[in-house]
Amino acid sequence: xxxxxxxxxxVIRLVPKVEREEFLNVGIILFSKRAGFLxxxxxxxxxxxxxxxxxxxxxxxxxxxxxxxxxCEGVKEGGPIAQVDLASRFRWLTAVRSSIIQTSRPHPGMxxxxxxxxxxxxxxxxx
Length: 127
Fold this sequence. Notes:
By secondary structure, this protein is α+β, with helices and mostly antiparallel strands. The chain is built from 4 helices and 5 strands, in the order βββαααββα.
């Protein structure tokens, strides 16, 4: 019998105009300390984004989202945060902030398959 993994996930939100508090779900971060798992999936639907804000720089948004990926992967290009342990990286990525890219509060769950759960949450909450 395969063990279930305790995990936490957060939804990545794009908030084009912070003062209006409207957002688009653009990604998912999933973390499991015991399994040593930290991954992110994201995609920006430009058509939906332009409904909220026509003047947002797509390249800037993508560069910021790419930094989430680099931090999750722990690569040098992710900066100093990418070099700390997985739990600290997840906590930093999901810290409350008032910027264009924000995350929901973390939510817990249990799963036998972390990759499948990441993909399911992405389909359900982002696509």
